[in-house]
Each structure stands twice: as C-alpha cells, then as structure tokens.
Design a protein that fits this description.
The structure holds two protein chains of two kinds. Chain A is an all-alpha fold. Chain A contains nine helices and no strands. Chain B has a domain of 34 residues. Classes of the chains: A mainly alpha, B mainly alpha.
Chain lengths: 201, 62
C-alpha cells in the first residue's frame, strides 16, 4: 500500500521545486513529532528521514495547496506503525526500553520539570500520546489530528482528554519515578516553571 | 444526562476545579515547550541531503 501514483502526473521540475521547499520547512516539525513517537533521538531521526523519503516519492499524489504538514505527519505516523508492527514481538519490551532511553537521554542542562513531563508522556498509551502531541503541541485541530490518525474526531477528542487526565495523574503522583522520590513534586515544579514562563511573556 | 462539561451535581469546590485547570494549562505550556525545543534544533545535514539528492535515492544512511 504505497505511493504508486507517480505515473499519474508527469515530472514537473517547477512543481518538484515547490514541493521540495515546502517539505524543507516541515523538517523540524517532522523531527519533533518523530521524537515524541520514537523517544530515542537517533531512532526518531531515522524515522523522520524515512518519512521524508516516502513523502518525496509520493509527491505526485500530493495536492499542492492542501495541508502538507498534516499529510507528512500522516506518512510519518504510518511509517512508525508499520515498522512497529514488523517488530511486534518486541513491543512488550517497548515501554521498559522507552523509559530507559528517556532516562538515558536526559539532558542535565534542561529544566527538571521538562524531563519529568517527557517521562510521563512516555508512559501514556501510544494512541493517547500521539493525540495529545498533535493537538496540544503540533498545532493541529481535532479534525486534522483525526485525519492523521485515521480515526473519528470524537475518538481523538476522548484520547486527548484521557491523555491529559492520565498525564496529570502521573505527574501529581510521581509515578514516573521508581526510586520513591516525593510524590507530587513534579507537578509543583511544572506549575512553578510554567508560571515563570508565562510571566516572561 | 451526564455531561462531563457540567460537573454541577457534585459541585466540587471551585478552588479544586481552578487547580485542575491550572495544572492542565501548565502541562500544556510544558508540552509545547518540549515540542518546540526540538523544532528549534538545527536541522542535521542528512535531512537536507535527502532533499538535495531528490530522486537520486536513499543510498547509505548514517
């Protein structure tokens, strides 16, 4: 189930160039989305690059002037899930591995609360995580997120709200930690830091 | 009947509702910040190479 629509339209250098420019602008966003799916930055960049190549190959099937960001995000997401399906045996280890990776890539320079959010996000079921990221950070409307995820708008809405509740619960209870550090501390830090940020604006 | 938007029957203290909303806002801010941090990273050359190569195919990555 790939592109294949290439023969429909003749190669048009001007159109290709326009496509290329638009795709280039989207690279940072594709990387960010991939990072939230794959966790490990190297795997995420591989995923984003594969998605870019897929998008380039399928460019003939893209309707110029429509939402290329949503289109490329959908390609990236499909790529992620098809790779994941291929290695489904490993999926039970994914959660554990993701947590280990997330801990391992902790940037000591970044604010503590951000790391904790990242860990909490990594604990959400994938379908909730992607919905929350698309709507809450990617700037997509529910309708667009539904299209990207291939599900109903109502499904996206309920996933986002479940994700929000779950994430808040994780952060308030301090579930993301195994070492028995003070529960609720993360939420306090996040609140304090968010307050500082909004005061800066 | 049970509209989740209207938690009136139980009427939780409004401060609890406020606190929950504040938490959600804070999480939203952090979430965007986390995403934007990656968006603002410089794009690695390999990505631009893909575009430059165009049709010249994937070849050896990394």
């Amino acid at each position: 189930m790939g592109a294949g629509a290439r023969a429909d339209r003749q190669a048009d250098p001007r159109r290709d160039e326009a496509f290329r420019r638009e795709l280039e602008i989207l690279i940072p966003h594709l990387r960010a989305f991939a990072r939230t799916l794959a966790g490990d930055p190297t795997a995420a960049d591989d995923l984003a690059q594969d998605a870019m190549m897929k998008a380039w190959d399928a460019r003939a099937s893209f309707e110029m002037g429509t939402n290329m960001k949503a289109w490329t995000f959908m390609i990236l997401r499909n790529q992620f899930y098809s790779e994941k399906r291929r290695s489904w045996r490993q999926s039970q280890l994914d959660q554990e591995a993701a947590e280990r990776t997330l801990v391992a890539i902790d940037d000591p320079a970044s604010p503590v609360a951000l790391d904790e959010l990242r860990l909490g996000l990594g604990m959400l079921p994938l379908e909730q995580r992607e919905a929350l990221v698309l709507v809450g950070a990617g700037g997509f409307a529910y309708e667009e997120a539904a299209e990207i995820c291939g599900c109903a708008v109502g499904t996206v809405k309920s996933r986002v709200s479940r994700a929000r509740r779950a994430l808040q619960g994780i952060l308030v209870r301090g579930d993301y930690r195994r070492d028995g550090a003070a529960a609720g501390e993360a939420m306090g830090k996040i609140l304090a830091h968010a307050e500082r940020l909004s005061n800066q604006r | 009947m049970n509209n989740p938007r209207a938690p009136r029957k139980t009427s939780p203290s409004s401060s609890a509702v406020d606190e929950a909303r504040l938490r959600q806002q804070a999480i939203g801010v952090k979430l965007r910040q986390m995403f934007d941090a990656v968006v603002n990273e410089p794009v690695p050359d390999e990505f631009l190479d893909i575009l430059r190569r165009g049709d010249a195919r994937r070849s050896e990555k990394s």
